[in-house]
Amino acid sequence: MKSPQALLLALALGAVTMAQTATPDAGPSPMVRTLLAQMSLEEKVGQMTQISLELVCKGYPMTQDPLEIDLPSLRRALLEYHVGSILNVGTSAHTLERWREIITTIQDVATKETRLGIPVIYGIDAVHGAGYTLGATLFPQHLGMAATWEPELVRKEAEITAYEIRACGIPWNFSPVLDIGRQPLWPRLWETFGEDPYLASVMARAYVAGLQGSDGRLDTHERAAACAKHYLGYSFPLTGKDRTPAWIPERMLREYFLPPFQAAVQTGVKTVMVNSSEINGIPVHASSFYLRDLLRGELGFQGVIVSDWADIRNLHERDRVASTPKEAVRMAVMAGVDMSMVPLDYSFYDLLLELVREGTVPEGRIDEAVGRILQLKADLGLFADPYPPKEASGRFASPDCREIALQAARESITLLKNSGKLLPLSSSAKVLVTGPTAHKRSCLNGGWTITWQGDREDLYPKDTPTILEAIVATAGRERVKYVPGVEVNREIDIKAAVKAARTADVAIVCLGEDPYCETPGNISDLTLPEPQLRLVASLAAAKVPVVVVLVEGRPRLITSIADKAAAIVMAYLPGPQGGQAIADVLFGRVNPSGKLPITYPRACNDLTLYDHKHSENANSFNRYDPLFPFGFGLSYTSFAYGDLTLDKETLGRGDSLTVSVTVENVGQRSGKEVVQLYLSDLYASVTPSVRRLKRFTKVDLWPGEKQTVHFTLHESDLGFIGMDNRLTVEPGQFAVRVGDLVRTFVLE
Ligand code: BGC
Predict the structure, then answer these.
(1) DSSP-derived 3-state class of residue 734
(2) Is it the case that residue 600 has pLDDT exceeding 90?
(3) Closest residue (by CA) to atom 10 of ligand 1?
(4) What b/e string do you get for 401-439 counting C-beta neighbours within 10 Å, with b at 16 or more?
(5) Is the CB of 174 within 6 Å of ligand 1?
(6) Cα–Cα distance for residue pair 306/78, rounded to 1 Å
């Protein structure tokens, strides 16, 4: 052996083939323990440090495209500070080839020039596909994926994403977002799988399994480590503004916000990112209750806990629970954070080193964190091969992958209103296309696409159509007029749109939001900006039939125009295939099958959710009266439900219940229906919800076709978080509802 580095690499390779993955509860593998034993304190603390790519690029802090790595800065990071992880994109999306060069340069320095040759783990936000790689396969954002109610599409999305980031040499994806979208103002609502914990948990399992595979083997170029984020309670800020306080009683936290994280842990998720904000006055980054007791102790999570962006420093600078930056580092590390997304300096490294040297943070805690980080690298096969695959095969952004993304976009589109069966439009219809989202690719995609905010329209590849272009391709140029009328927040010329509409059979009005991400997306009013509402009102006043298409990341209020529009189509943020998918639905090439994964509110001060308590729907004053309820979505055909049966009327403890129902396509064309099973606990020691989603499945039926669907409920499905904050199952009567059919049973 020529060098310790070579020795370690050989050791690593041997260990990797013998025991790739740490066995449950076993702690780090022998290879990781051997490596750890040889590391200096500085090398260990470096492993816990994650920096952003721009810090090692030319021109920092004014990093520009085309981004170029500054070798002296990279060497400083990896040789002086022993940095273990790098994240993000620096500026804007790179080509696949550029990524491969970037990662190769980084791994060359890490593995050939550092004393121990430990590879860097690179992490990225590939939240709807590899959004920071030009030409990658991009899907609807999570909210749209949830609207498909099709976990298999989510699994395939994650599988493709894993492959495509790995083709770049990136093995770690900061996804899925498992926050529950129960605060519609929150600018990250579109990153969630919606308001229901069960639906989000099913999607969480599918996503983690798709990204990581189901056999525990991540040491291939087909798989990547998932990161369940943002643990816990991030999505429910009282003000609706990003990174502001949440007040969530523990029972509510466990009932609504914890389940998807639990599902991800049960599926073997490798990493968890911490909520940037606070719950009940306690920043989660400083809470050993949330990080140790709940996440590790109760849920049994064994992977790496990474901070969110600059959030250890925020304990001092923003949250003021630490009186110095050093105290902030002590708090977070002792609370259980293993890796700090510092990310733009080396303060974490310096301060943590001081803390260990002076004995304030025990070295054992460092070993614990570094053991997990090294194990993650080993599990991903990085010690054996830290580089991008020799060649990215033809599967990258292949037509097959795009077809799946198109299918997902099509299945996400949710038809909310269709008066007089205006839709589907005949391809001979003369249409006016108008509105701010009609001809913009950025609006279809939203944040985390090409750039953080996703708003660089000029950088979007033009190989997929905008809504306008897809409509033109469908209906023919001679039948389509385009007059934008308004921007998102400003009138351009509504009169011109109305004039153009007078000679059209129908106006397709594409409304919604410009792209945004995180805090810059904060709003103070959920109502859709007034110029957009005025555009619809003016067109309707001119007696032009209006089809509203909503391209938006949260349910912007449209109540004042909902009656004026003949048809309303919710598209969420459908990704690059969205233009095509929307046109396909409008002109009937696709029968819509999406269902709302959120409640669409009617009024800005009535944000009651579908699983509210009885008191919230008790009389004419307190009503669940949204514009469109959770789970709602129309089709061009009709479905009839019948024969709802339970295999038992009385259940003993430990029994399971089989629920059967027949669904028939009683309309004229084939279509998909999401069969949703809701359960109501009629009386309970903690006020029960009116109903809770417990099972669902999507069926595909020809006209006249009938299918019997069976669901199995287990005892735990009947439970709720009781007065002692534990899962409680109480005897009594329950009601099962599918469609309009209801049956009751008794648990003894
Ligand atoms: C976001 C995370 C993201 C991280 C890295 C943070 O600001 O909250 O969701 O993973 O940045 O980009």
Answers:
(1) strand
(2) yes
(3) 174
(4) bbebbbbbbbbbbbbbbbeeebbbbeeebebbbbbbbbb
(5) yes
(6) 19
Instruction: Give residue 391's pLDDT band: very low, low, confident or very high (50, 70, 90).
Output: confident
Render pLDDT for 447-476 as a digit per residue (tens, 0 to 9).
999 999 999 999 999 999 999 999 999 999
The predicted-structure confidence for 530-584, as pLDDT tens digits, reads as follows: 999 999 999 999 999 999 999 999 999 999 999 999 999 999 999 999 999 999 9
Probe residue for ligand 1, chosen from 89, 229, 235, 308 as the CB with the greatest number of ligand atoms within 8 Å? 308
| DSSP 3-state of 634 | strand
* Residue minimizing CA distance to atom 8 of ligand 1: 308
Q: Is residue 54 within 6 Å of ligand 1 at its C-beta?
A: no
Q: Is the CB of 308 under 6 A from ligand 1?
A: yes
Q: How far apart are CA 680 and CA 661, in angstroms?
A: 17
Q: What is the DSSP letter of 69?
A: B
Beta bridge partners of 693: 678
Q: Is 308 a known active-site residue?
A: yes
Residue bearing tokens 């009609």: 438
Would you say 69 and 57 are in contact if contact means Cβ atoms under 8 Å apart? yes
What pLDDT digit, counting tens, does each position of 615-651 carry? 999 888 999 999 999 999 999 999 999 999 999 999 9
C-alpha separations of 143 from 154, 442, 501 in Å: 11, 17, 32
Collapsed DSSP state (helix, strand, coil) of residue 433: strand
Band the pLDDT of 668: cuts 50, 70, 90: very high
Could you give the CA distance from residue 592 to residue 143 in angstroms, rounded to a whole number?
Answer: 16
Q: What is the DSSP string of 539-570?
A: HHHTT--EEEEEE-SS--B-HHHHTT-SEEEE
> Whose CA is closest to 640, among 669, 662, 618?
662
In the 3-class helix/strand/coil scheme, how is 196-232 assigned residue by residue? CHHHHHHHHHHHHHHHHCCCCCCCCCCCCECEEEEEC
pLDDT attached to residue 437:
98
Q: Whose CA is nearest to atom 2 of ligand 1?
A: 308
Q: How many CA atoms lie within 13 A of 736 on its CB side?
A: 29
Q: In sequence order, what DSSP letters do the residues of 337-356 get, joined into one string?
A: --BEE--SSSHHHHHHHHHH
User: Is there an atom of ligand 1 within 6 Å of 196 CB?
Assistant: no
Answer for the pair 650, 746: CB distance below 8 angstroms, yes or no. yes
For the chain, helix, strand, coil in percent to 5 are 35, 20, 45
Residue to mutate, 273, 304, 314, ligand 1, most ligand atoms under 8 Å from C-beta: 273
- Which residue has its alpha carbon closest to ligand 1 atom 11? 309
Residue from 276, 306, 309 whose mutation best tests the ligand 1 pocket (most atoms within 8 A of CB): 309
Residue 518 CB less than 6 A away from ligand 1: yes
* Ligand 1: nearest atom to the Cα of 191: 9
Residue 394: pLDDT over 70: yes
Give which of 274, 461, 348 is closest to 49, Cα–Cα: 348
Question: Which member of 179, 196, 308, 717 is catalytic?
Answer: 308
User: What is the whole-number distance in angstroms between the Cα of residue 340 and the centre of ligand 1?
Assistant: 12
CA separation for the pair 325, 317 (Å, rounded): 8
Ligand 1 centre distance from Cα of residue 394 (Å): 30
Give the CA distances from residue 459 to residues 97, 135, 147, 492, in Å, rounded to whole numbers and listed in that order: 17, 11, 28, 24
